[in-house]
């Protein structure tokens, strides 16, 4: 996600035939039509959708291409983003069942080497606090150590060391703050308790047990299975991404999986008959922290407690992919949507697609396609263009003026330089994210912001230099008669 390369338009053609084993033809035809329209509107190069209903495969369909030009299939690897969190949570619940950890024990007993600043708060962080994002570690502090493109067996431990001494900003257990740091620490706890790398434990105790044979937690393993990076977005147009894969992020966002493997996970979530006891499974999908209205966060899940339509789900993203996992146990269906393109400015596209698929399954109604306007990219571009014109006009006026207020022009110059210095910190504050996160998840926006910084600084410096030179010439001209 670092530099723009060539534009690559995706071929949104049907790669494999539609598989239907249950449900009405009208329903699957509506889904096919809706997905075709959505993928075309959002210019998504490749996607995979699998729907499971009443224990059977309702639909499995794939569209388009990977970044190497090969077709997307049910076995194509995608990084699943924060959908990794429910899988990490499942591993934690497995360790609870094995009596190796307890949800309400303080994490100090599991990762004693990790130290944090309690900031005067009385409570200490527990496993449950990490699972529900109520540890008191802020979202910003978590993002600081996320998406670092680290590799190797020590990646999780190295990231935890960077988080060491983090200062809590809330009493543990009181405030929900969604943060990668929480699940990074859970990954470290799994490694410490089991004495195994996170990837090995997940493979042996979760993926293999569910038959998820193409789900992995390291870049090395993903590469062996043919993993390809996805695409970034330039005003909606897909552009090939460089490889962005952080092994330390596997517990919170960098698990790689396929539509076929995720359908097996959906079967577990609907059938409730594998890996965990009934009591622990119910805890696993139960609401824990109230968010707003009837929405809660659980142990790695976003949960709706609407009596008429209860469901749980999780979305996910990495710099070049997006995922939506949705489960409705009352209506006995679930689905996974995987796409290989991402930009923060287009986040609503996959959320809209999730709601559209849900509406078709439940009501057999074809939803409208949400239009994208790309304001996050257009606004800094227009500001860059306008500021360039304004700066040129100001410099032209300064050059042509016969008399001018030297101090006024110097103040203008210094204000422009100051603006260039504070612009990126202001964006960091506005987005609530470190600069590298903004750059990873909205590179076009970040590039134009950097252009604005450069234009402000250059204009400021030129104004100061030109006003000084003009003042010098005026002073020399004024002294000329006396010298004669």
Structure description:
The protein folds into 2 domains: about 25-365, DD-peptidase/beta-lactamase superfamily (Beta-lactamase, 3-Layer(aba) Sandwich); about 375-484, no CATH class. Residues about 1-25 have low confidence and may be disordered. The protein has helices at about 25-40, 85-95, 125-130, 140-145, 155-165, 180-195, 200-205, 220-225, 260-270, 280-285, 345-365, 375-400, 405-430, 435-440, 445-484, and strands at about 45-55, 55-65, 80, 115, 165, 230-235, 235-240, 255, 290, 295, 300-305, 310-320, 320-330, 335-340. An 8-stranded antiparallel beta sheet has the order 2-1-14-13-12-11-10-9, with helices on both faces. The chain is globular, with a radius of gyration of 27 Å. Helix 1 packs antiparallel against helix 11 (about 345-365) and helix 12 packs parallel to helix 15. Helices cover about 45% and strands about 15% of the residues. It is built from 15 helices and 14 strands. The protein has about 475 residues and is an alpha+beta fold. The longest helix is centred in the C-terminal third of the chain and has 41 residues, at about 445-484.
What can be said about this structure in brief?
The protein has two domains: 25-363, 3-Layer(aba) Sandwich (Beta-lactamase), CATH 3.40.710.10; 375-483, no CATH class. The protein is 45% helix and 14% strand. It contains 15 helices and 14 strands.
